[in-house]
Amino acid sequence: MMATAVAEKSRVLVVDDEPQITRVLRTVLTSQGYQVSTAAEGQAALATFAEFRPELVITDLYMPHMDGIELCKRIRAVSAVPIIVLSVKGEERTKVEALDSGADDYVTKPFGIDELLARVRAALRRSGGEVEMASFEAGEFRIDLEGRRVHSRGNEVRLTPKEFELFVYMARHPNRVITHRTLLEAVWGEASQEQPEYLRVFMGQLRKKLEPDPSNPRFLVTEPWVGYRFNPNG
User: Fold this and answer.
1) Model confidence over 10-32: pLDDT tens digits?
2) Can you give the pTM of this predicted structure?
3) pLDDT (tens digit, 9 = 90+) per residue, 62-77?
4) Closest C-alpha among 51, 74, 77, 56 to residue 14
5) Domains of the chain
6) Would you say the C-alpha torsion 54, 103, 122, 147 has a positive or negative sign?
7) Integer Cα distance of 167 and 80 in angstroms
8) Quick check: 33 and 4 in contact, CB under 8 A?
9) Rounded to 5 degrees, what are φ and ψ at 201?
10) Cα(167)–Cα(172) distance, integer angstroms
């Protein structure tokens, strides 16, 4: 199967202080062809991360010594690897904090295995899938799809996988109002259409990195109550 062929190339680090969770996820992910390593808390996860070099990290949010929020920050400081956060809490504030710390996706416990596997496949596909062209330009931005890099005014801008996917989608649809629903489905999948906090967080992060004045955006413009519009020339 195609999914298995992709999975055989993928290393996944699972971080959770509940042994039953790590056992279940190791069993399920291994059965799908993934290479899996586990850690029980953040400090151990960082050591494993450096040695194992995972292509995806799945981490619990609340753990002893170093929680998932701090782990996301530490990983994001050195890598753009996709991160999926697991937590029993579903409040918007908690989700926003996780996303702000560098997570790409958020799954609330208890979760269905099929849903988690779909999120894993989507994250890996978006971080390393095939591209239609090597690069393209949108106004003053140059987007290298193969290298997954964005240059603005000649300077490289470091984006996380989800930030890159969001910006590429908007850059491919310039000067058009794109609804919240369309963006959520395009970047996070159909299951995320009721999670508008994803867009607020990631759009804020993109503006900090791409806008000369993030508080008065020229390129990534909000269309109130509808969505966003990308103005390539500001």
Assistant:
1) 899 999 999 999 999 999 898 88
2) 0.62
3) 888 888 999 999 998 8
4) 56
5) 2-128 (3.40.50.2300), 135-230 (1.10.10.10)
6) negative
7) 15
8) yes
9) -65, -50
10) 9
